[in-house]
Amino acid sequence: MARASKLVVAGFVAAMLAVSLLAVSLRGRLRCAGFAGPGVTAAELPAPAARDELRVASWNLRNFPLDERPQEPDLGYLRRTNICDLETALGGLDADLLALQEVCDTRRLPPILRRACAPRPMRAVFSAAGGRFGQHLALAWDDSVLELVDGPFELTELVLAEGMRPGLAAGFRSRAGGGLELTVVTVHLESGRDGFGARRRQNRALADWLEARGAARGESSFVVLGDLNTAGSPRGGVAGELQSLDAILGRAGLDRLAGAGCSQYWEGGGGRDGVQQPSLLDHVLLGGPALAAAGPVSAWLHCARAGCAELVSRPGQEDGTFWDVSDHCPLTFEIRVGGSG
């Protein structure tokens, strides 16, 4: 009887192990499901930063981990993030500091960051509010490179009407020599050309916050980055909105870094024909000592793959990272730590 009992227990354990392995296998296939390609390649990711440089990245993750927009059966649309491609891209950015937008599930992202960026000891903070669509902001950093010294702060000043997203800010200090201190602010402003007036008011509120922060702390290095949604003004188009953005944040001592020709793709005005058009919605603005030590901004993944030209994504030609991860592309730039003062 005892022998039979042991056999039953052993059989039960073996069965449960088999079920567990099957579940892991199925979960792996589900979370890595996606189009055949192209996915993430080394040519579409930055080379490692120099030892005396701090790499900063910004990326809108398109309603991570689910995109609830209607499917387009003719063009293919999975409506969920390909976690494997996301992890490969996050790790490949090799960023010391990440600003992320449209994080709808703040519980699932931290373990993904830890896996993607290992062996870096990554920490992350999120905005409590996410606007009408639950799109939270995040700041993540390598704790061996940067020390959190202030915050995080939720910039409710940017919530000028119900449903708007706040900003998220924090103060960091480099653990390397030189003592570089940064106030980092990530934002996700109102979208669409009709939202230009709201964005202009949000930029003014942001400039007020930056000026008050600078006055309270003395001279400080500021980094403002994220999805500023520069879709254009009704009269001046995109160029007119960029001029407005530069003027408003310029009074707070910030300059917009050039370099990225595009940061996002969309269907454009020509209908759903599978040809995606480039746009520049995501930006980086710097002020203070860090500005003199910063390099240009670069856009990666499908923005690099297409060279900011039209992106063709039709059945059998689906672009992996565009459909499976985000319509936005990650941006990166570097700050020389030793030379920033």
Describe the structure.
The chain is of the alpha+beta class. The protein has one domain: 4-Layer Sandwich (Deoxyribonuclease I, Chain A). The protein has helices spanning 2-31, 83-93, 109-117, 196-217, 237-250, 289-292, 302-306, 320-324; strands at residues 53-64, 97-103, 122-126, 136-142, 146-155, 167-174, 181-188, 221-227, 254-256, 264-266, 275-279, 282-287, 298-299, 311-312, 331-336. It has a 6-stranded mixed β-sheet with strand order 3-4-2-1-15-13, covered by helices on one side. The chain is globular and about 55 Å long.
Strand order of the largest sheet: 3-4-2-1-15-13
Number of domains: 1
The total of helices stands at 8
Which CATH class applies here? Alpha Beta
Rounded radius of gyration (Å) = 22 Å
**SSE-based structural type:** alpha+beta
What is the H/E order?
HEHEHEEEEEHEHEEEEHEHEHE
Query: How many β-strand stretches?
Result: 15
CATH homology superfamily? Endonuclease/exonuclease/phosphatase
CATH architecture: 4-Layer Sandwich
N→C terminal distance: 78 Å
Assembly status:
single chain
Name some characteristics of this structure.
Deoxyribonuclease I, Chain A; 8 helices; 29% helix; alpha+beta; disordered N terminus; 6-stranded mixed beta sheet; 341 residues
Describe how the helices and strands are arranged:
Blueprint: H1 2-31, E1 53-64, H2 83-93, E2 97-103, H3 109-117, E3 122-126, E4 136-142, E5 146-155, E6 167-174, E7 181-188, H4 196-217, E8 221-227, H5 237-250, E9 254-256, E10 264-266, E11 275-279, E12 282-287, H6 289-292, E13 298-299, H7 302-306, E14 311-312, H8 320-324, E15 331-336
